[in-house]
Amino acid sequence: LERMSENWRSQVLKVIGGLRSKGVPSPRQKIKKAFKEIDVVQNLWNLLVEVSGYIPQQKVLRRVGTILKWEAWQQSSWRIKSKLIVLYLLWFTGGVYLFLFGRYFKRRKPRATVSSHFEDENTFDVCVIGGGVAGTTCAYYLAKMGKKVLLLEKRVYPFEKPCAGVLTLDAQRRLKDMGIFKELFDEQSAKWVTTGGLIGPSGQSFIINAAEAMQGRLLSVPRDVLDYKMSQAASREGVVVVDGAKVTDVKFSKAEGMWYILYEHDGIPMTRCSRALVAADGAKSGISRKLGVVTTQPNALGSLMTVSSEGHERFLADGMCFSPPSLLPHNGYFFMVKKSNLNSQLCCIVNNEDITHPQLEKIHSDLVMSNPVISDILGTNLKQTSMCITRMRMGGIPRNFGNHFLCVGEAAGQVDPLTGEGIQYSMEGARIAALTLAEAFSCDDLTCDFLSRYQKRLKNRFFSSNFLAKIIYRHPILLDAACLTIKRNPREFSRLWCVAMSSIFFFQFFGKDYLQTSHLVGCSLFDD
Is-contact 165 222, C-beta < 8 A? Predict the structure, then answer.
């Protein structure tokens, strides 16, 4: 140790003395010149060699290279071999982690960004095609993060859309963010859905107080009012909203990194440019299909009818789900929701792409007129509007992103196949798309590799719903068993039912004190 300290001290003095002898006033500026004129590198190397001579030699380190020598490897004991194998695995794992970390750091490293506000009024950061729930949500959050957004909708607000318009707790939070939650109640356009239940294939039924189970109530809003209010909120945030704009073509220029959107407004052809494009144009999604992102047809069909009658006010539940035997072979269900004007909306959904419009119309009409339970609920003097039928896309799609492109809402299949809930998933998917695009703009990277994180964030969101839907449609007796179980043990099982039917995420459900036990409102469906 004394000899090592003396040698180390002499080597350090040589380095420092060499620097001082040359009179280097500023090592930061003249360090290269000093290193060339004096033997500093050699002295440092001698110092390292001297110090390394006193490090104990490890047997494992001495034998690291034995794997490259077959004879030495055969002569080594299994104890040495096991240590070497562990060492090699550790080195390999460390190398993989370093590679992944470097790749992640490279992708997250900010680049020189382009200004988010273009001087040309016809050029935007993002163009959103489709002014429904998903399109307006995505446009709103992008504008809130300082982006210049164009929103194109082919219909003129307000417009009708076949949808029950039931909003879960997460969807209500999005409305509060936009500042339209209170407006809906001030205009008497919203109604709380407090109680709900299920009627099984054999007639077993129950009604529960969903408000107590979820620490909040579901909200029923007419879809035409909801879309219009959300477009107004986006416009107030700075989004350029153009309704009555029919998009005829979209083209992408790789050299410029820009989308060219061609559309007609009041019969006048127009062209706008944007760096990113978001398709929120519904289940058919002509834009996504044209670009090759979506390659399949919509896999479901839904019908909607608004009715008014006498006597249905004695029905206790604000919402009710039916599983008649006639719909089970088609993977379908029927549900009714009371609206704020005391009318009711009857919806029928079949998760079967082989069913045609006339077939679903006949199934829906037969249920309303012939099913004894539904007829008793609706009462007498039934007045009904014309039936609306539309295609739906459920359960997600394999790929919802592209180069400078994202797909959101029903165009991306963001509808729960178990419950038909689409508003919440569309809002959440649109918000995640907006955050992903904001990150892409901050890194000036709108390529497929970067935008693929949008798909990863939504991955397996519908896995549990797809799995449960297949089991229930194959074994409908489980629905009757669920009705009997909840009627016998409402405190234990009613909150589980609320989780499934209100599309509450499972990580929220298993969170601490998120759901409270609920009480049975009544075993009978009618207040007799």
Answer: yes
